[in-house]
TrEMBL record:
<dbReference type="GO" id="GO:0016787">
    <property type="term" value="F:hydrolase activity"/>
</dbReference>
<dbReference type="InterPro" id="IPR051918">
    <property type="entry name" value="STPP_CPPED1"/>
</dbReference>
<feature type="domain" description="Calcineurin-like phosphoesterase">
    <location>
        <begin position="66"/>
        <end position="278"/>
    </location>
</feature>
<keyword id="KW-1133">Transmembrane helix</keyword>
<dbReference type="InterPro" id="IPR029052">
    <property type="entry name" value="Metallo-depent_PP-like"/>
</dbReference>
<keyword id="KW-0472">Membrane</keyword>
<dbReference type="Pfam" id="PF00149">
    <property type="entry name" value="Metallophos"/>
</dbReference>
<keyword id="KW-0812">Transmembrane</keyword>
<keyword id="KW-0378">Hydrolase</keyword>
<dbReference type="InterPro" id="IPR004843">
    <property type="entry name" value="Calcineurin-like_PHP"/>
</dbReference>
<protein>
    <submittedName>
        <fullName>Phosphohydrolase</fullName>
    </submittedName>
</protein>
<feature type="transmembrane region" description="Helical">
    <location>
        <begin position="6"/>
        <end position="27"/>
    </location>
</feature>
Length: 352
């Protein structure tokens, strides 16, 4: 047993002792109230543990869950830069070992959703020993409808014999999923990954926006209802949300009012969007507090400034999330030089 696991076991034992003694006390009170004779207390050593001591033990044990969120990889079989960025990120993540329990990829895995792009992605991922990987879809994962027979962009011949259904099939096959949206429980914490379900071949009006079906929205309701006791929940989307009170359009989550309404009753919900590729080091708001905590991640493939220019060609960024009993710590990671980004460092206390 490692020192970290021993301390976690010790914390659990302390809490179990406290709960057991509390239950005994309540039982004795019940017997007294019912007119029974007093029950002699067993002669045991009761652990005298203060709340501050438990908190310190918890901190010493480390986080209860840690995971990376990366996005906008834009893997393109014909362009090596994005593949190089992903390799650098995975080389860095690999050094964390068992300190990270998962990797979330939140959309735009590929540049166009073409079979060659997915093959390139699969080849890269297979070269590393990694924690479990979970993903959702971005708008670029539907872009194969724009690619002609010669492998080049061909708007005039759209949809080039392709369909949105084929894009969904390519994604779900890659990650062995039944549907593009799904969820997972990690160390007792819930991660929900929503996915754009259609694109302009089926619904021209959605543009580059994220359209979620009624089925997916009702599924989100049911999944959130599974969470009890205010434990943090992590919701992954791709496109950003529009201002409060509005539904989104192009490049945004379309059913945004309903999305916010579904999340509103729950405390300690963390939402992660991406899509805009914004550099953590520029003056862009990356954390917004609503009824939930909304974080805007950066990009692996193409990190951009506020004018959407890829000036820092070597940059590749993501988020590292650590979950404690009383807080969530989030830090931006620069994978190109394996450093923490000082402009992206947040500690969010959990509401009780």
């Amino acid at each position: 047993m490692t020192r970290r696991n021993f301390i976690k076991w010790l914390i659990a034992a302390v809490w179990a002792s406290i709960l057991a003694m509390s239950a005994l006390f309540m039982f004795r009170r019940f017997l007294g109230a019912a007119g029974h004779e007093a029950v002699a207390e067993p002669v045991t050593a009761t652990p005298q543990v203060e709340a501050a001591e438990v908190k310190q033990l918890t901190e010493d044990a480390g986080p209860l869950l840690s995971f990376f969120i990366i996005s906008d990889l834009h893997i393109n079989s014909g362009i090596s830069a994005q593949s190089s960025h992903l390799r650098k990120a995975l080389e860095d993540i690999k050094t964390f070992g068992d300190q990270t329990q998962a990797i979330m990829i939140t959309g735009d895995i590929t540049d166009s959703g073409a079979p060659a792009d997915y093959r390139e992605f699969k080849t890269i991922m297979s070269q590393y020993e990694l924690p479990p990987v979970y993903a959702n879809m971005g708008n670029h994962d539907y872009y194969n409808v724009w690619i002609g027979r010669n492998g080049a962009w061909s708007q005039d011949t759209f949809p080039n014999g392709k369909t949105d259904a084929m894009a969904r099939q390519a994604f779900t096959s890659m990650f062995n999923l039944e549907k593009p949206y799904h969820d997972v429980w990690l160390n007792g914490f819930h991660v929900i990954l929503l996915s754009q379900e259609t694109y302009v071949q089926e619904r021209p009006q959605v543009g580059e926006g994220a359209w979620y079906s009624d089925e997916q929205m009702n599924w989100l309701r049911s999944k959130l209802a599974e969470n009890k006791g205010g434990k943090p929940v992590f919701v992954m989307i791709h496109q950003e949300l529009p201002p409060i009170g509005q539904d989104g359009g192009n490049h945004m989550l379309i059913k945004a009012k309903e999305f916010r309404e579904i999340l509103q009753p729950y405390r300690n919900v963390f939402v992660f969007s991406v899509h805009t590729h914004q550099d953590f080091t520029v003056a862009t708001e990356h954390y917004i507090k609503e009824t939930f905590h909304w974080f805007k991640n950066s990009s692996i493939g193409l990190v951009m400034n506020t004018r959407y220019e890829n000036v820092r060609k070597d940059a590749a960024q993501g988020l590292f999330v650590e979950v404690y009993t009383n807080k969530v710590v989030l830090r931006g990671r620069e994978f190109s030089d394996r450093t923490w980004i000082k402009e992206a460092d947040w500690t969010v206390p959990l509401s009780s």
